[in-house]
Amino acid sequence: MPLNRRRFLGRTAATGAGVALTGAVGAASATAAEQPLVGQGAHGDHGHGRTKRYAFTVMGTTDLHGNVFNWDYFTDAEFDDKAHNDVGLAKISTLVKQVRKEKGRRNTLLIDAGDTIQGTQLAYYYARVEPITGARGPVHPMALAMNSMGYDAAALGNHEFNYGIPVLRKFEQQCHFPLLGANALDAKTMRPAFRPYVIKRMRTPHGRDVRVAILGLTNPGIAIWDKANVQGKMVFPGLEEQAAKWVPRLRSMGADVVIVSAHSGMSGTSSYGDALPYVENAAALVAERVPGIDAILVGHAHVEVPEYRVVNKETGRSVVLSEPLKWGQRLTLFDFELAWERGRWQVASVSSKVLNSNTAEEDATITGLVRGQHRKVVAYVNQRIGTSTAAMDAAEAPYRDTPIIDFINHVQAETVRAALQGTAYASLPVLSQASCFSRTAAVPAGPVSVRQVAGLYPFENTLEARVLTGAQLREYLEFSARYYVRTPAGAPVDPAKLTNAESIPDYNYDVVSGLSYEIDIAKAPGARIGKLLFDGKPLDDSAQFVLAVNNYRASGGGNFPHVARAKQVWANSEEIRNTIIGWVKARQVIDVAKFASVDWKLTRDGVPLF
């Protein structure tokens, strides 16, 4: 599941669908030593041969999330959004070839900052339906594409662990480049479970190679979000701690340039609160506090940052950070200028920018490699699995009680009730939480396909059951209601401005079924929940309930109160998406009248908003 993507503060300028950030932490500009060498060419001598110099470019992607084609498997159509962005490695490959032609292949590197094998139905199919781990398992489509493109290294993202370590290890075997994770450690030996770094040699015209070290760092939140897959097997200490350990080693090994590929945003925030002692979005802190880093390719936050400069407190030198927009919508270019000084290569300047993949055609080499797998997945997602008695969509789900969210909760609660039969908890009422995971999710009236049902739940979450009291549920709902902007009674209502979705994503606003309640958005956060009823009566604070909850929330994702420490009475390893698909296959009919009801509403001073 994506995480709490709090937008990093800085001077902003719109660029496509993302956010472009520029600025500096700790100083206004780069030091004089980092300014470009005036008049220098890429590979010639400065002046009359007094200074040898060399230029090279590092290209970077991140958060590809299983996108090869410019295709949306949930809509069964070419991808498009309001900004007319395109997605996929096939488009990125064309840009990469253009850069290599311009710069010279030997003067470029290509790296990634993680979240590669989860996100589309293409990725899901080759993890679960026809898994790459099978006896005659296929090569993962992302490995096929990235191998063909000539990636030099990729950092591990947190979503790499969603399908379990065996799938990740098989993917690692299939890649012709290393997967890097200096802070992914074996739980028993505390040694790196993956390669921490790779050093690439860039041949220069001067007979002196440039040694470029790429250090990979992943997200400590893996210990929470994929606890079921990694507990007792791997641990994930903080990025700053591990960078401070490895960067000096890389320098002592002769690295002229150190680049960090970090699956960690820049904002300094965490979506898991105090559940871990490490910062989730730590890239800027690493740049500021760990000396010896020249540039950081940033991932995880799903925002566009063409260039951001952070001044290192110890050296006074600026570190350049860049994050290309997710899914292959952008390609970062780090341009390095080096000069030969005092018997070694020194970084004279670094700059970065992003290229937009919607300017490129898809590379026929990449689409040709993966076309067979793509067609197989398109056929799979278009299988009819049942019918719906009415159309449902999520367009208004962030601010109204809608049948489509009721449906998710209905399936989850029914699944947990069946699982608890015959146990000590069978007599407790079962409630359920769900969020608006996609505002474009829709189920039509009539025939329903795999892709339409899968579109309700685009994340790889699994289902758990936790025991909470009425008082804890009240606090849970109050916390969830922070999502709404405080809006005085009588003021005009603009649904587009009701939510704090910029800082609290839709997936961190929970609807709880099985209760009825009002959310008074004229009141301050923390005092908004009113008329909280169970079975038509005021909620008893001491009563116990079972909450059907996804593993992201149960593990502390979103930092909701109580649930992470509540007693777990059941859990399984099947994705909720698959549970819903299985439910529809088994029953054949989604009878909307059986679960759709208005149980919560927004009010202002007690007056319903709608």
UniProtKB/TrEMBL annotation:
Give the signal peptide, or none.
1-32
Primary location group: other
- From what organism does this protein derive? Streptomyces mobaraensis (Streptoverticillium mobaraense)
Q: Please list the GO biological process terms of this entry.
A: nucleotide catabolic process
Q: Which residues form the 5'-Nucleotidase C-terminal domain?
A: 385-564
Specify whether Ribosomal protein is a keyword of the entry. no
Catalytic activity, as annotated:
a nucleoside 2',3'-cyclic phosphate + H2O = a nucleoside 3'-phosphate + H(+); a ribonucleoside 3'-phosphate + H2O = a ribonucleoside + phosphate
GO MF, one term, reads:
nucleotide binding
- Which CDD domains does the protein's record reference? MPP_CpdB_N (cd07410)
UniProt domain Calcineurin-like phosphoesterase: residue ranges: 57-303
For activity, the cofactor(s) needed are: a divalent metal cation
The GO cellular component terms are: outer membrane-bounded periplasmic space
Q: Which family does it belong to?
A: Belongs to the 5'-nucleotidase family.
| UniProt cross-references to InterPro entries, sorted A to Z | 5'-Nucleotdase_C, 5'-Nucleotdase_C_sf, 5'-Nucleotdase_CS, 5_nucleotidase/apyrase, Calcineurin-like_PHP, CpdB_N, Metallo-depent_PP-like, TAT_signal
Q: What is this protein called?
A: Bifunctional metallophosphatase/5'-nucleotidase
Q: Which UniProt keywords apply?
A: Hydrolase, Metal-binding, Multifunctional enzyme, Nucleotide-binding, Signal
Q: Where in the cell is it found?
A: Cell envelope
